[in-house]
Write a structure and sequence with these properties.
With 656 residues, the protein is mainly α. The chain is built from 26 helices and six strands. Among the domains are: 2-253 and 623-655, no CATH class; 423-548, no CATH class. It has helices spanning 29-36, 39-63, 112-120, 127-133, 146-155, 183-199, 202-216, 221-228, 230-234, 245-253, 263-285, 296-306, 308-326, 331-359, 370-381, 385-388, 398-417, 424-444, 452-466, 474-496, 505-528, 533-538, 541-548, 550-571, 579-610, 641-649; strands spanning 9-12, 15-18, 69-75, 81-87, 137-139, 168-170.
Length: 656
């Protein structure tokens, strides 16, 4: 660290750049022009974000005692103190006993709503008032607290040079590096700040603002580096060479991984999502196939596609049952996690459908009468249409009612019956009896919810796989695949009318339940029972990427298909439509649905349903977090600077 003690000189992979005080900009026409140009966009952004700010303030007041806003003294240009405005995201007086402490990714001082605001960076919106007042700019080094800045100046004498310009809402350092964790990360960001100060200009500011948008959307670091251009390479102490396109895609679709996660589960979700898409595509575009749409091949494809939802139900049943049987669950925390897994993405799409219903009342499913409309919307918000038989606002959300019922009842049933303490044969016997009784109920009384049998089949599949995990033989896989083929074949024959029982309609329901149960049990055994061919196939990366965002894809693909189907009827004259339109529209619709769901996944699902889980096994972005072990004591800046420097630089590759 001696290179930081006398001058702001940083050694970069074979070259040295000196950024002394004489290189830093002073007041001039460019600075005055930059200041004049910020007023109009600042006022526009304040008005545009006012509803979001108001909503955030209300949520903070409802969920945490204390003021909604808070101010903090920061250092501005030339070291002049000013008060920065923020929405409060942490408990009141959370630093009373610790003093100034660097915030961490899963900071325990933040309350639940505050953590969401921090993930979305909505707590920074009031700083637009600081920009309007002239305390800050849109782009520049981030302002620091006086106490922390004084202690950092003791370790890095060039630290005060960053104060020669106005601090910013975002900056060259912020879009490339994680928050301050240790002295090494501070030095890295200081070097980037000094590079920005020396190269400041409208073009660089625009690049940084675009990179900030990518940062807020959690897009890969490589996207930001390419946007920033050559200055990004110069601002890194460690070579940040962007990865390949494959690496960039992997970063977009990556989610927190647990050590015991079965990769084939993610791939199977991708297959299930594709099958559901295909079912709806056939409904809208199958008419262009003409007479071929009624053939056995088309019916076979349509039948398999319509059972994509059964794969989703099987995966949920398999995983949730296994979770409940393996260990005692904290029921409240479990339901809370399920709530955050389902509702953020659902509410986003629900709001979109509600807006479209208002814009196109002719296509709306919402009743015209106000009281009936309120009841209908509340029923949809509670995810009940799948259980009550009411047509849902979002067609595919009928399955969410099944999922919700599973989450609420299964942990209680296993706990109250003591199934966790039973032997596996005992559980299999009881589950088989329950499945048989439910089959009789569906055949003789009501087939309305026959798909619940898929859950029971998934429970049985877990018991069969649990004792044989990792010991799947070629013969066992062949038997399971035979069961899958028989189940799918039976469902196809039933759909085509080749197998029927007009005198006993309930028998058709029973036959379908048996066929689907056999198929899903075979799929579970092949995919989750070991490292067989099916498991390896479903572990293919693109399938797993689609599986990771399958929930967003599931909710949005219908809207994309509807829009493209309407576009096809408008753009293609009736006399030119034919099978070619079906095959041409298939890839366009599929990749259009993938693109739309990717935006929802990155902007909402990944950030709210995955990023808020304080799981110690959650990996950081390996391209944005340096490999540094942080001592919690070092997050408090009240120890001797020389001791901090020695400890924090030891083992850090940035200072070797």
């Amino acid at each position: 660290m001696n290179q930081y003690r006398d001058t702001a000189t940083v050694s970069l992979v074979g070259r040295t750049e000196s950024l002394g005080a004489t290189d830093l900009p002073r007041k001039g026409p460019l600075a005055r022009l930059k200041r004049a140009l910020v007023y109009v966009p600042t006022v526009f952004l304040i008005v545009l974000t006012a509803p979001v700010t108001l909503l955030a303030v209300v949520l903070v007041k409802l969920t945490s005692p204390g003021p909604a806003f808070y101010t903090q003294v920061r250092l501005g240009r030339n070291g002049v103190p000013f008060r920065i405005y923020k929405i409060r995201t942490m408990h009141v007086d959370c630093e009373r006993d610790t003093g100034p402490v660097w915030a961490t990714r899963y900071d325990p001082r933040a309350f639940r709503v505050g953590r969401i605001l921090r993930v979305l960076h909505l707590d920074e919106l009031p700083q637009l008032m600081n920009v309007l007042r002239g305390d800050m700019a849109f782009v520049g080094p981030r302002p620091e607290r006086p106490m922390i800045a004084a202690q950092l100046q003791e370790s890095i004498p060039g630290y005060q040079d960053r104060l020669c310009v106005r601090p910013g809402l975002t900056g060259l350092a912020q879009v490339q590096f994680p928050g301050d964790q240790d002295l090494g990360s501070v030095c890295q960001k200081l070097f980037a700040d000094l590079l920005y100060i020396r190269a400041a200009g409208p073009v660089l500011d625009l690049r940084i603002l675009i990179a900030t948008v990518f940062y807020l959307l959690h897009l890969p670091l490589s996207w930001r580096l390419r946007t920033l251009g050559s200055i990004a390479e110069r601002s890194h102490l460690i070579d940040p060479t962007p990865g390949s396109t494959w690496d960039s895609l992997a970063a977009v679709y990556r989610i927190p991984q647990k050590p015991d996660r079965i990769l084939a589960v993610q791939g199977l979700r991708g297959v299930a999502a594709s099958l559901v898409f295909l079912a709806h595509f056939l409904t809208l575009f199958g008419v262009y196939l003409g007479s071929a749409a009624g053939g056995l091949a088309a019916q076979a494809v349509d039948t398999m596609a319509r059972h994509g939802t059964d794969l989703f139900l099987m995966i949920s049943g398999y995983l949730i049952y296994g979770m409940c049987v393996r260990r005692q669950l904290d029921y409240g925390r479990f339901l809370n996690d399920r709530f955050w897994r389902i509702y953020p993405t659902f509410l986003c799409v629900f709001g979109l459908y509600l807006g479209l219903s208002l814009a196109f009342p002719g296509e709306s499913k919402v009743p015209a009468e106000p009281a009936a409309a309120v009841a209908y919307l509340l029923e949809n918000l509670a995810l009940l249409p799948g259980l009550t038989g009411t047509p849902p606002l979002i067609v595919v959300t009928w399955t969410l009612g099944y999922e919700l019922l599973l989450y609420v009842t299964l942990p209680l049933a296993i706990h109250l019956t003591g199934m966790r303490n039973w032997t596996s044969p005992q559980r299999v016997a009881v589950l088989a009896a329950v499945w048989g009784c439910y089959l009789v109920y569906c055949v003789t009384l009501s087939p309305a919810h026959a798909r619940f049998a898929v859950y029971i089949a998934a429970f049985l599949a877990y018991e069969f796989v649990r004792g044989r995990r990792g010991r799947l033989s070629a013969g066992g896989e062949a038997v399971a695949m035979t069961a899958v083929a028989a189940g799918v074949g039976g469902a196809v024959l039933l759909r085509a009318g080749i197998v029927s029982s007009p005198d006993l309609p309930g028998m058709a329901v029973g036959f379908r339940v048996v066929a689907v149960s056999a198929a899903v049990m075979g799929v579970a055994y092949c995919c989750f029972g070991g490292d067989g061919r099916c498991s390896r196939a479903f572990s293919w990366s693109p399938l797993r990427w689609l599986g990771n965002m399958s929930y967003s894809f599931y909710l949005t693909h219908g809207l994309v298909l509807k829009a493209l189907a309407l576009a096809a009827t408008v753009l293609v004259p009736a006399e030119f439509r034919g099978p070619w339109l079906f095959w041409a529209a298939l890839p366009v619709c599929y990749f259009g649905a993938v693109a739309t769901s990717t935006a929802l996944f990155v902007g909402v699902e990944k950030r709210l349903s995955f990023s808020l889980r304080s799981d110690p096994a959650v990996p950081h972005d390996d391209r944005t977090c340096p490999d540094v072990t942080v001592d919690p004591a070092d997050t408090v800046l009240d120890i001797d600077a020389s001791q901090r420097t020695a400890r924090m630089t030891e083992g850090n590759p940035a200072f070797r």
